[in-house]
Amino acid sequence: MSEASVAVHADADLLAQAVAARLLVKMLDAQADRGEASVVLTGGRIAAAVYRAVATLPARDAVDWSRVDVWWGDERFLPAGDPDRNETQARAALLDVVPIDPARVHPMPASDGPAGNDPEAAAAWYGEELARAAGPGHGTLPHFDVLMLGVGEDGHVASIFPEHPVHYDTRPCSAVRGSPKPPAVRTTLTLPAINTAEEVWLVAGGADKARAVGMALAGAGPVQLPAAGVHGVGRTRWLLDRAAAADVPARLRSLR
Ligand SMILES: O=C1O[C@H](COP(=O)(O)O)[C@@H](O)[C@H](O)[C@H]1O
């Protein structure tokens, strides 16, 4: 398992700018090394700020967007175009602004989408989509260069909530019913799938995240605090603002 690193930025705006810059560099490096880049997006407030920042950085034009695959770590199970869908947010802030190949954008199904109004069928559909992208004989998941996660006040990541039965699902993608945060019905990558990514970035801003971030880095159990259970194969980065990092032990921080 990779060692986690922690970077702390002065405030949420600088955090979003810094994550956006890192994301562009990661995509450029992946395209230089592999000919393409594969990113897994998340939802939430800081993620939206990151996507807006990517769209405004001049270096965005150095990326060949026709060779970028976009996946999602979780989704709210709502009709297509609903403003609360993570997909809607990412499209408005970034994907509608850059010349991305629509065939390489892989949203989790909407409740009026290809799997119908059935979250279990939607999760299975996404699992098949992932396996198709992996290619025959390459397992159930494609390569992910970077997978971004927000962190909930309760320590949830993607739509994996504390003590939820989804912790015991070993399929790549799972339906989530009874989410404590609305909407109640969601779909999510599971921890085994998330932890196949080359790099996992946990991005959190604001004082309301400090307790969860501090506990995760202090070694809490993943069922009680899902953020404690994620790690990239090559790298795990915690990208925080000062308020979210308030409870992080000083020895783990590198202040920016
Ligand atoms: O519901 C969700 O919440 C988390 C965190 O969102 P935030 O607004 O507190 O930053 C997000 O990472 C996840 O993708 C989303 O579905």
TrEMBL record:
<comment type="similarity">
    <text>Belongs to the glucosamine/galactosamine-6-phosphate isomerase family. 6-phosphogluconolactonase subfamily.</text>
</comment>
<keyword id="KW-0378">Hydrolase</keyword>
<feature type="domain" description="Glucosamine/galactosamine-6-phosphate isomerase">
    <location>
        <begin position="11"/>
        <end position="238"/>
    </location>
</feature>
<dbReference type="InterPro" id="IPR006148">
    <property type="entry name" value="Glc/Gal-6P_isomerase"/>
</dbReference>
<dbReference type="GO" id="GO:0017057">
    <property type="term" value="F:6-phosphogluconolactonase activity"/>
</dbReference>
<protein>
    <recommendedName>
        <fullName>6-phosphogluconolactonase</fullName>
        <ecNumber>3.1.1.31</ecNumber>
    </recommendedName>
</protein>
<dbReference type="InterPro" id="IPR005900">
    <property type="entry name" value="6-phosphogluconolactonase_DevB"/>
</dbReference>
<dbReference type="InterPro" id="IPR039104">
    <property type="entry name" value="6PGL"/>
</dbReference>
<comment type="function">
    <text>Hydrolysis of 6-phosphogluconolactone to 6-phosphogluconate.</text>
</comment>
<dbReference type="Pfam" id="PF01182">
    <property type="entry name" value="Glucosamine_iso"/>
</dbReference>
<dbReference type="InterPro" id="IPR037171">
    <property type="entry name" value="NagB/RpiA_transferase-like"/>
</dbReference>
<comment type="pathway">
    <text>Carbohydrate degradation; pentose phosphate pathway; D-ribulose 5-phosphate from D-glucose 6-phosphate (oxidative stage): step 2/3.</text>
</comment>
